[in-house]
Amino acid sequence: MEYMKEAVASSQGHILCCQCGTPISPNPANMCVACLRTQVDITEGIQKQVNVHFCRQCERYLQPPGTWMQCALESRELLTLCLKKLKSSLTKVRLIDAGFIWTEPHSKRLKVKLTVQKEVMNGAILQQIFVVDFVILHQMCDDCHRVEAKDYWKSVVQIRQKTSHKKTFYYLEQLILKHKLHQNTLRVKEIHDGLDFYYGSKQNAMKMVDFLQCTVPCKYKASQRLISHDVHTNNYNYKSTFSVEIVPICKDNLVCLPPRLAQSLGNMGQICVCVRVTNSIHLIDPNTLQIAEVDGSTYWRYPFHSLCNPGHLDEFIIMEIDIIRNYKHIPGAGTKSKRHTLADVWVQKTSEMNTNQQYHCRTHLGHLLNHGDLVLGFDLANSNLNDEYVNKMNPHHVPDVRIRRRNWKLKELDKDAGDMGSDIDKQYLEFLEDLEEDDIIRKNVNIYRDSSKVPVESDTDDDCAPCITLTDMLEDLCISVDATGAEGADMIEISVIGIEKCNSGL
């Protein structure tokens, strides 16, 4: 009977296992897979439990010797990191497949199923599947150690601007958040006239300085202080300080240019209005609509100061407006603005409504103004201006008034705030107003839709007034209280630019 079974097995091209007698296909070991595994374990020497270090503060994994990587659970990057931990153990086998086995996120375990092959017993190829447990151990990375210490820094960038408001720093804050330059900072400290950014390396501080030079007109000075010196290795340890000074000119400031600078800008009028500040100062002459740009290097060669800012405004009402359509362009003058319209207006102070006193002036905002609009303006005739470049010329600067419900918001940096004064909320609202008025500045800022605000149509809204549409907003998953401190509150503000008296009206 046994002889007949062997004959049948041989006729079908099978042999019997030398250990258990089971018919199998011929192989160099003449053994079945079960018996072969009892004799040989190809996973011998491969670690079945490995430790992986994880930083809870920044949620990064350690890749030896000193690199920390951001990896999502069950991602390809995390699988690569786990396999590198087993690289020395897998040199004697061939890795065929690897993949994660699902575990609870809070279990602090990562299970990876591996499929390996190895040649055993006279050339037989054995394939085996096994599971490796990766135990997650908590360890704080060096960057988080420095953040927690708050005193361990090697470079600091001190940003300063000699102005009475902080609208420029609000704009810089949004640019830093958009380009993610705050990720390498150890600490951000807010002080009265600027911000301090602390870094663990000089290279990161230099990146911030280069970014500021490309963003706003500024200049900087670098200094360093010796901390320690190793006489044996001749290594020096320094702390570097970069003092960055931003030009003290902001949007809606009235300035008086030096005569040489005004002449080099195409015989531009000396009294101008700053309409925008990007990496250069954008100026407009309200008498002729001539525009010019002054970069940082030019400003520091020919410095000038602000005559008036939006804090020196009086309220007026427009009594009459006349658009100037055929204004003669002076030969040799610079570029003329196409975004503005020249107009003559008659205005009266709201505090002098019981009198017949009216004032005549010229404005570059004729495309925004209508009869009866309330405006805020500069009264230069009754102002104490102490500037060496002020002469007989009288500028004109006319705004409009809007009441608007704002259904968007901005994100903010995590700063160590100090004593910033009582008018900080007002300055922030003025910065939000600048974003609504200037679409060029708005392109550099990430604006998020505030889902807590319910869109409400109002009869006081002006269809011609600038606004931020839904297409300019981004979705934000985090719902938070807006900048006014009251969720869902209506934010009412007045957009002001300026208006001044002429000699003919005084």
TrEMBL record:
The keyword Protein transport applies. GO terms for cellular component: cytoplasm; nucleus. Residues 249-295 form the 60S ribosomal export protein NMD3 SH3 domain. Keywords: Cytoplasm, Nucleus, Protein transport, Transport. It comes from the Eukaryota. One of its GO terms (molecular function) is ribosomal large subunit binding. Pfam families: NMD3, NMD_SH3, OB_NMD3. InterPro entries: Nmd3, Nmd3_N, NMD_SH3, OB_NMD3. The keyword Transport applies. Residues 17-246 form the Nmd3 N-terminal domain. One of its GO terms (biological process) is protein transport. It is found in: Cytoplasm; Nucleus. Residues 313-402 form the 60S ribosomal export protein NMD3 OB-fold domain. PANTHER family: 60S RIBOSOMAL EXPORT PROTEIN NMD3 (PTHR12746:SF2), NONSENSE-MEDIATED MRNA DECAY PROTEIN 3 (PTHR12746). Belongs to the NMD3 family. Acts as an adapter for the XPO1/CRM1-mediated export of the 60S ribosomal subunit. This is 60S ribosomal export protein NMD3. The lineage of its organism: Eukaryota, Metazoa, Chordata, Craniata, Vertebrata. The gene is nmd3.
